[in-house]
Protein backbone atom coordinates (compact mmCIF):
# COMPACT_ATOMS: atom_id res chain seq x y z
CA UNK A 1 0.00 0.00 0.00
CA UNK A 2 1.50 3.33 -1.11
CA UNK A 3 -0.96 6.11 -0.16
CA UNK A 4 1.31 9.00 -1.18
CA UNK A 5 0.88 10.00 -4.82
CA UNK A 6 3.81 10.07 -7.21
CA UNK A 7 3.89 13.82 -7.65
CA UNK A 8 3.03 15.06 -4.13
CA UNK A 9 5.65 17.56 -2.98
CA UNK A 10 7.81 16.10 -0.19
CA UNK A 11 7.42 17.61 3.28
CA UNK A 12 10.68 17.20 5.17
CA UNK A 13 11.78 18.10 8.67
CA UNK A 14 14.49 20.79 8.39
CA UNK A 15 17.89 19.87 9.75
CA UNK A 16 19.47 21.84 12.55
CA UNK A 17 22.26 24.06 11.12
CA UNK A 18 25.01 21.92 12.68
CA UNK A 19 23.53 18.73 11.26
CA UNK A 20 23.01 20.34 7.86
CA UNK A 21 26.70 21.24 7.80
CA UNK A 22 27.62 17.62 8.60
CA UNK A 23 25.21 16.35 5.94
CA UNK A 24 26.71 18.64 3.31
CA UNK A 25 30.34 17.90 4.21
CA UNK A 26 30.12 14.17 4.93
CA UNK A 27 27.05 12.98 3.02
CA UNK A 28 27.31 15.12 -0.13
CA UNK A 29 23.92 16.67 0.63
CA UNK A 30 22.75 19.60 -1.49
CA UNK A 31 19.89 21.12 0.54
CA UNK A 32 17.91 22.48 -2.41
CA UNK A 33 18.07 19.10 -4.17
CA UNK A 34 16.89 16.84 -1.34
CA UNK A 35 13.15 17.22 -1.98
CA UNK A 36 13.60 16.43 -5.68
CA UNK A 37 15.58 13.30 -4.83
CA UNK A 38 12.93 12.14 -2.35
CA UNK A 39 10.28 12.64 -5.03
CA UNK A 40 12.36 10.71 -7.58
CA UNK A 41 12.90 7.86 -5.11
CA UNK A 42 9.17 7.66 -4.36
CA UNK A 43 8.33 7.62 -8.08
CA UNK A 44 10.90 4.90 -8.68
CA UNK A 45 9.41 2.72 -5.91
CA UNK A 46 5.93 3.01 -7.42
CA UNK A 47 7.29 1.72 -10.75
CA UNK A 48 8.87 -1.43 -9.28
CA UNK A 49 6.45 -4.35 -9.73
CA UNK A 50 8.20 -6.49 -7.10
CA UNK A 51 8.60 -3.85 -4.38
CA UNK A 52 6.03 -2.46 -1.96
CA UNK A 53 7.84 -0.01 0.31
CA UNK A 54 6.89 2.74 2.68
CA UNK A 55 7.02 6.07 0.88
CA UNK A 56 6.59 8.66 3.60
CA UNK A 57 9.10 11.44 3.06
CA UNK A 58 11.08 11.19 6.29
CA UNK A 59 11.51 7.44 5.77
CA UNK A 60 12.86 7.97 2.25
CA UNK A 61 15.22 10.82 3.08
CA UNK A 62 16.88 8.50 5.59
CA UNK A 63 17.78 6.13 2.76
CA UNK A 64 19.21 8.99 0.73
CA UNK A 65 21.42 10.09 3.62
CA UNK A 66 22.33 6.48 4.34
CA UNK A 67 23.57 6.29 0.74
CA UNK A 68 25.49 9.57 0.88
CA UNK A 69 22.76 11.18 -1.22
CA UNK A 70 23.38 8.95 -4.22
CA UNK A 71 19.93 8.35 -5.67
CA UNK A 72 20.99 5.14 -7.40
CA UNK A 73 22.53 3.71 -4.23
CA UNK A 74 19.44 4.74 -2.26
CA UNK A 75 17.34 2.68 -4.69
CA UNK A 76 19.60 -0.32 -4.10
CA UNK A 77 19.54 0.16 -0.35
CA UNK A 78 15.76 0.39 -0.01
CA UNK A 79 15.30 -2.66 -2.26
CA UNK A 80 17.86 -4.52 -0.19
CA UNK A 81 16.19 -3.37 3.03
CA UNK A 82 12.97 -5.18 2.17
CA UNK A 83 14.63 -8.12 0.42
CA UNK A 84 16.95 -8.95 3.30
CA UNK A 85 14.21 -8.72 5.89
CA UNK A 86 12.80 -11.86 4.28
CA UNK A 87 16.17 -13.55 4.81
CA UNK A 88 15.97 -12.91 8.57
CA UNK A 89 12.74 -14.62 9.69
CA UNK A 90 14.17 -15.02 13.21
CA UNK A 91 13.91 -11.23 13.59
CA UNK A 92 11.35 -9.96 11.07
CA UNK A 93 8.29 -12.06 11.74
CA UNK A 94 4.71 -11.76 12.95
CA UNK A 95 5.89 -11.13 16.53
CA UNK A 96 7.41 -7.77 15.59
CA UNK A 97 4.35 -5.99 16.97
CA UNK A 98 3.75 -3.59 19.84
CA UNK A 99 0.84 -5.76 21.04
CA UNK A 100 3.03 -8.84 21.41
CA UNK A 101 3.50 -9.37 25.18
CA UNK A 102 7.08 -10.53 24.68
CA UNK A 103 8.01 -7.21 23.07
CA UNK A 104 6.83 -5.14 26.01
CA UNK A 105 8.38 -7.57 28.50
CA UNK A 106 11.76 -7.04 26.89
CA UNK A 107 11.30 -3.26 26.84
CA UNK A 108 10.43 -3.26 30.56
CA UNK A 109 13.48 -5.36 31.41
CA UNK A 110 15.62 -2.42 30.31
CA UNK A 111 17.74 -4.53 28.00
CA UNK A 112 17.73 -1.90 25.24
CA UNK A 113 18.39 1.67 26.37
CA UNK A 114 18.25 4.48 23.84
CA UNK A 115 20.03 7.28 25.63
CA UNK A 116 18.14 10.62 25.65
CA UNK A 117 20.44 13.39 24.47
CA UNK A 118 20.21 17.19 24.72
CA UNK A 119 18.62 19.15 21.88
CA UNK A 120 21.94 20.77 20.98
CA UNK A 121 23.74 17.41 20.69
CA UNK A 122 24.48 16.48 17.08
CA UNK A 123 26.77 13.47 17.39
CA UNK A 124 25.91 9.80 16.92
CA UNK A 125 22.86 8.37 18.66
CA UNK A 126 23.77 6.11 21.57
CA UNK A 127 22.15 2.81 22.49
CA UNK A 128 23.22 0.66 25.43
CA UNK A 129 22.27 -2.98 25.08
CA UNK A 130 22.43 -4.95 28.32
CA UNK A 131 22.73 -8.07 26.25
CA UNK A 132 22.69 -10.60 29.08
CA UNK A 133 20.01 -9.14 31.36
CA UNK A 134 17.39 -11.73 30.43
CA UNK A 135 16.34 -15.26 31.32
CA UNK A 136 17.68 -17.61 28.65
CA UNK A 137 14.93 -20.12 29.44
CA UNK A 138 12.28 -17.56 28.49
CA UNK A 139 13.85 -15.42 25.76
CA UNK A 140 16.23 -15.90 22.86
CA UNK A 141 18.81 -13.40 21.70
CA UNK A 142 16.85 -13.16 18.44
CA UNK A 143 13.96 -11.77 20.51
CA UNK A 144 16.25 -9.03 21.83
CA UNK A 145 17.39 -8.18 18.30
CA UNK A 146 13.76 -8.07 17.13
CA UNK A 147 12.82 -5.45 19.71
CA UNK A 148 16.02 -3.52 19.04
CA UNK A 149 15.20 -3.46 15.33
CA UNK A 150 11.85 -1.82 16.11
CA UNK A 151 13.51 0.99 18.02
CA UNK A 152 16.17 1.31 15.32
CA UNK A 153 13.46 1.83 12.71
CA UNK A 154 11.74 4.46 14.85
CA UNK A 155 15.08 6.20 15.34
CA UNK A 156 15.63 6.56 11.60
CA UNK A 157 12.28 8.30 11.25
CA UNK A 158 12.39 10.52 14.34
CA UNK A 159 16.03 11.35 14.99
CA UNK A 160 18.03 13.18 12.34
CA UNK A 161 21.22 12.51 14.30
CA UNK A 162 20.88 8.82 13.41
CA UNK A 163 20.80 9.32 9.64
CA UNK A 164 23.33 12.16 9.55
CA UNK A 165 25.80 11.50 12.39
CA UNK A 166 25.04 7.78 12.74
CA UNK A 167 24.83 5.68 15.86
CA UNK A 168 26.99 3.70 18.26
CA UNK A 169 26.07 0.64 20.29
CA UNK A 170 27.44 -0.19 23.72
CA UNK A 171 27.06 -3.92 24.41
CA UNK A 172 27.17 -4.36 28.18
CA UNK A 173 28.10 -8.00 28.78
CA UNK A 174 27.85 -8.01 32.57
CA UNK A 175 25.87 -11.01 33.86
CA UNK A 176 26.94 -13.09 30.87
CA UNK A 177 26.65 -16.83 31.37
CA UNK A 178 27.50 -19.82 29.26
CA UNK A 179 23.85 -20.01 28.19
CA UNK A 180 23.88 -16.39 27.03
CA UNK A 181 27.07 -17.02 25.11
CA UNK A 182 25.57 -20.05 23.39
CA UNK A 183 22.64 -17.91 22.20
CA UNK A 184 25.01 -15.56 20.37
CA UNK A 185 24.77 -17.55 17.17
CA UNK A 186 27.53 -16.47 14.75
CA UNK A 187 25.24 -16.88 11.74
CA UNK A 188 22.54 -14.65 13.24
CA UNK A 189 25.11 -12.06 14.33
CA UNK A 190 26.64 -11.99 10.85
CA UNK A 191 23.31 -11.81 9.06
CA UNK A 192 21.79 -9.08 11.19
CA UNK A 193 24.96 -6.99 11.46
CA UNK A 194 25.31 -7.11 7.69
CA UNK A 195 21.64 -6.18 7.28
CA UNK A 196 22.28 -3.20 9.56
CA UNK A 197 25.40 -2.21 7.64
CA UNK A 198 24.12 -2.74 4.11
CA UNK A 199 20.38 -2.05 4.30
CA UNK A 200 19.56 0.18 7.26
CA UNK A 201 19.57 3.93 6.49
CA UNK A 202 21.98 4.79 9.31
CA UNK A 203 25.74 4.99 9.60
CA UNK A 204 27.07 2.48 12.11
CA UNK A 205 29.89 4.28 13.92
CA UNK A 206 30.93 1.63 16.41
CA UNK A 207 29.98 -1.42 18.47
CA UNK A 208 31.76 -1.58 21.81
CA UNK A 209 31.56 -4.60 24.10
CA UNK A 210 32.16 -3.65 27.74
CA UNK A 211 32.22 -5.61 31.01
CA UNK A 212 33.30 -8.72 29.15
CA UNK A 213 34.56 -11.23 31.75
CA UNK A 214 38.14 -12.26 31.14
CA UNK A 215 37.04 -15.88 30.74
CA UNK A 216 34.79 -14.86 27.84
CA UNK A 217 36.98 -12.19 26.26
CA UNK A 218 38.68 -14.52 23.79
CA UNK A 219 35.32 -15.94 22.75
CA UNK A 220 33.89 -12.49 22.10
CA UNK A 221 36.91 -11.53 20.03
CA UNK A 222 36.31 -14.65 17.97
CA UNK A 223 32.62 -13.78 17.59
CA UNK A 224 33.53 -10.31 16.38
CA UNK A 225 35.20 -11.84 13.33
CA UNK A 226 31.75 -12.85 12.09
CA UNK A 227 30.79 -9.20 11.64
CA UNK A 228 31.13 -7.65 8.16
CA UNK A 229 34.70 -6.71 7.32
CA UNK A 230 33.84 -3.01 7.13
CA UNK A 231 32.62 -3.11 10.74
CA UNK A 232 35.66 -4.84 12.24
CA UNK A 233 37.62 -1.61 12.69
CA UNK A 234 34.66 -0.19 14.63
CA UNK A 235 34.38 -3.05 17.14
CA UNK A 236 36.12 -3.13 20.51
CA UNK A 237 36.03 -5.70 23.30
CA UNK A 238 36.97 -4.70 26.85
CA UNK A 239 36.60 -6.13 30.34
CA UNK A 240 37.05 -2.72 31.99
CA UNK A 241 33.74 -0.99 32.88
CA UNK A 242 35.50 2.38 32.64
CA UNK A 243 35.92 1.76 28.89
CA UNK A 244 32.38 3.06 28.46
CA UNK A 245 33.56 6.63 29.09
CA UNK A 246 35.87 6.43 26.06
CA UNK A 247 32.81 6.35 23.81
CA UNK A 248 30.07 8.16 25.73
CA UNK A 249 30.55 11.35 27.77
CA UNK A 250 29.66 10.67 31.39
CA UNK A 251 27.01 13.42 31.49
CA UNK A 252 24.93 11.58 28.88
CA UNK A 253 24.76 8.33 30.85
CA UNK A 254 22.08 7.24 33.33
CA UNK A 255 22.96 7.17 37.00
CA UNK A 256 23.45 3.39 37.02
CA UNK A 257 26.37 3.86 34.62
CA UNK A 258 27.98 6.65 36.62
CA UNK A 259 26.24 9.53 34.84
CA UNK A 260 23.69 12.19 35.64
CA UNK A 261 21.16 11.66 32.84
CA UNK A 262 18.24 10.24 34.81
CA UNK A 263 17.81 6.56 35.59
CA UNK A 264 17.31 3.38 33.60
CA UNK A 265 13.70 3.36 34.82
CA UNK A 266 13.22 6.83 33.30
CA UNK A 267 14.58 5.64 29.95
CA UNK A 268 12.41 2.51 29.97
CA UNK A 269 9.29 4.57 30.69
CA UNK A 270 9.99 6.88 27.74
CA UNK A 271 10.78 3.99 25.41
CA UNK A 272 7.59 2.14 26.31
CA UNK A 273 5.51 5.25 25.63
CA UNK A 274 7.30 5.81 22.33
CA UNK A 275 6.72 2.26 21.15
CA UNK A 276 3.02 2.50 21.97
CA UNK A 277 2.77 5.55 19.71
CA UNK A 278 4.04 3.40 16.83
CA UNK A 279 1.49 0.62 17.28
CA UNK A 280 -0.32 1.39 14.00
CA UNK A 281 2.99 1.81 12.17
CA UNK A 282 4.05 -1.76 12.94
CA UNK A 283 0.56 -3.15 12.32
CA UNK A 284 1.03 -2.11 8.68
CA UNK A 285 4.39 -3.87 8.43
CA UNK A 286 3.00 -6.98 6.72
CA UNK A 287 1.83 -4.87 3.78
CA UNK A 288 5.39 -4.08 2.73
CA UNK A 289 8.05 -6.29 1.19
CA UNK A 290 9.11 -7.86 -2.07
CA UNK A 291 7.55 -10.38 -4.42
CA UNK A 292 10.46 -12.10 -6.13
CA UNK A 293 8.16 -13.57 -8.79
CA UNK A 294 7.54 -10.04 -10.05
CA UNK A 295 11.15 -8.85 -9.92
CA UNK A 296 12.51 -7.81 -13.29
CA UNK A 297 15.98 -9.10 -14.08
CA UNK A 298 18.06 -11.37 -11.85
CA UNK A 299 16.18 -12.88 -8.92
CA UNK A 300 17.35 -12.70 -5.34
CA UNK A 301 17.57 -15.92 -3.40
CA UNK A 302 19.32 -17.10 -0.25
CA UNK A 303 22.41 -18.24 -2.14
CA UNK A 304 23.05 -15.07 -4.11
CA UNK A 305 22.31 -12.85 -1.11
CA UNK A 306 24.70 -14.66 1.23
CA UNK A 307 27.13 -16.04 -1.35
CA UNK A 308 29.14 -19.23 -1.02
CA UNK A 309 30.75 -18.12 2.25
CA UNK A 310 27.52 -16.93 3.86
CA UNK A 311 28.18 -13.21 3.44
CA UNK A 312 25.84 -10.67 1.89
CA UNK A 313 27.06 -9.12 -1.31
CA UNK A 314 28.43 -5.69 -0.61
CA UNK A 315 26.73 -2.41 -1.46
CA UNK A 316 29.67 -0.04 -1.59
CA UNK A 317 28.83 3.08 0.38
CA UNK A 318 31.83 4.35 2.30
Work out the helicity level. Answer: 40-55%
Q: Which structural class do the helices and strands define?
A: alpha/beta
Let me know the largest β-sheet. 5 strands, mixed
At CATH level 3, the topology of the largest domain is Phosphatidylinositol Transfer Protein Sec14p
Strand content: 5-15%
Task: Note down, in words, how this protein is organized.
GO terms for molecular function: phosphatidylinositol bisphosphate binding. This is Alpha-tocopherol transfer protein-like. It comes from Bactrocera latifrons. With 318 residues, this protein is an alpha/beta fold. It folds into two domains: 17-86 and 288-306, no CATH class; 101-277, 3-Layer(aba) Sandwich (Phosphatidylinositol Transfer Protein Sec14p). The chain contains 14 helices and seven strands. The chain has a five-stranded mixed sheet with strand order 2-3-4-5-6. Strands 1-7 form a two-stranded antiparallel ribbon. The longest helix has 18 residues, at 141-158. Residues 307-318 have low confidence and may be disordered.
